[in-house]
Fold:
Amino acid sequence: MPKILIVFHSRDGMTEALSRAVAEGAAAAGGEVRIRRAREMVTPDVMAMVPGWADNATRMNALYPAPVADDAHWADAILFGTPSRFGLVCAEVKAYLDSLGALWARGQLVNKVGSAFASSGSTHGGNEVTSLTLFVPMAHFGMVIVPPGFADPAMFQAGTPYGASAVSHNRPGALPSDAECAAARFQGRHVTAITAALKGAGLHPME
Structure:
């Protein structure tokens, strides 16, 4: 059974919903799934400037543990989900990536499968480039990068070939559409299937 880790950050719930859809797809393909939410990197004063941020963080933190290095060591595949922050991965997920230096130094991320997905406030808010930028640390880690591509009809309806995505159109509390969730579920299935095939072929993460 492939071990699938989903590490995400979400402020309003959009990326959280995408993460849950990815998890559904991974579980449907036979994966053992862990979902982890990266914690805030800002002060309570900053969070208070955005209505609902603190309440949403409290709710999600009660549902999802914070990611730790042992989660990445456990996983055969890691999917990183992030809101687009000016076209880049958010600070919270970046901080988790930075925490994996000891695993990187020991080569313990080599041959793990990596994938990414993102959300944004506007149609051209950076989802594609955000997913692409997450490929860079994956390459440094020696991961096998697996984007969803246009490998399923769902990907012609929503998302990007680099990773599932959702757009809130700057509506507070907006959730992904059915089409966006379908693309995310496909990405979870696809990554899990590729991970299982690699494990079956004898390509295992280094210990």
About this structure: The mean pLDDT is 96. The chain has eight helices and six strands. The longest helix spans residues 178-200.
